[in-house]
Amino acid sequence: MSDRLISDVVSALEALTRQEREAQRRLNMIPSENHTSPLARIALGLDSGHRYFFNTSNDPNSWNFPAAREASRVETELTLPLLRRLTRAEHVNVRTLSGLQAMALVLSALGGGPGTTVISIHADQGGHYATAGLARRLGLTSVLASGPDPHSLDLDALTTLVARHRPSLVYLDLSHALFPLDAEAVVAAIRAAGTSARVHVDISHWMGLVLGGAIPHPLDAGADSMGGSTHKTFPGPQHALIATRDAHLAAEIGLAQQEMISNHHLAVTCALGLAAAEFLAADPLGYSRQIIASARLLGAHLAERGLPPEAAERGYSGGHQLWVDSARAGVDADTAARRLDEAGISVNVLTDLPGMQGRPALRLGVAEPLSVGLTTDDMPLVADLVTAAVFARRPADVIAEHVAALRAARVPRWRLADQPQIATILRRLTAQEYAA
């Protein structure tokens, strides 16, 4: 083995170590990310990460890949039952690797044949950047629904659009959005067109809020299916799910999934089950309501300190994120983000947020801060730290130490690993005899 190879591996491990240490000291406020608990993450490093699992019927004669037999029980006996409970849907598919792959699967399974129309949301109203292009790549015709402002759909126009184009699928892909869809009103507008269009709601950014109960449930509102990524407001690993109460739709989705996805990453679905257990154990309604309250309160305190977020007239947010045009306060977004990064606070800079006319803006989220133990009561302090960094009111290294102290003083929300029976098993998993 060459010295250069050993040196490269050492450098790689040192980089991973620095990443892990830094993560414990920083406040990650990127809305597309969340903190997965150590309990859930432990599944990602075990033998299940190397195995295929196809025998979902548990047929004793169909274990063509028998090495997955034990780990598969986690998916079938923990992950799926808990997600059926949380989604309140009998049929849950956990075999998509990301929100965008779930989108592709739904468009392929429910979008119809070549040339069939699919309606999705215009980017100016928060629709996902990829939906229309992906639909066209699948041979579908894309039509976009829009509205009178960056935060609303025109429901009368939506009814007319559905009646005119008679789509096979209306894919409600609210992505860049401060406020959730009024699912009941939107579904009612689609049904008023008198067509047989199926309605799918992409809840990637809203999943923790929907499953926690803080915002209305799309399936209760009449949608045919819903799904999305599991690592934004829901504190799971990077993965995705699709849920429906319709057995026929579930079968269509399942058939497409078998043809489009082979290795669905069994270790990740095991981690997803453990994350779902922690979510249920830690007051999901309280967590989801606290996310919305924290975002709104943080917005108000940022405004008081000279850094007002968008949509003040609507309370800044109805979900987990805030958008801030820092240039209006005298600091361009790139400079503001760099100063925040140096102060131990991670945010996005985006140029495609609805209503911002292409201006770079900061995007801040509160889901991960709440996952790592902060509460609504901490939002005034967070606003102090953010504005002190953006306006360079204190040295970055001083703010970074305050951020690290705040992290160290808070107990992470996800704590099932502290339960004695669970802690004992975790010790066994990390013992030397299991390391090999």
UniProtKB/TrEMBL annotation:
It holds the Pfam family SHMT. SUPFAM superfamilies: PLP-dependent transferases. Gene3D superfamilies: Aspartate Aminotransferase, domain 1, Type I PLP-dependent aspartate aminotransferase-like (Major domain). Keywords: Pyridoxal phosphate. The keyword Kinase does not apply. Its cofactor is pyridoxal 5'-phosphate. Residues 14-385 form the Serine hydroxymethyltransferase-like domain. PANTHER family: SERINE HYDROXYMETHYLTRANSFERASE, SERINE HYDROXYMETHYLTRANSFERASE 1. Belongs to the SHMT family. This is Serine hydroxymethyltransferase-like domain-containing protein.
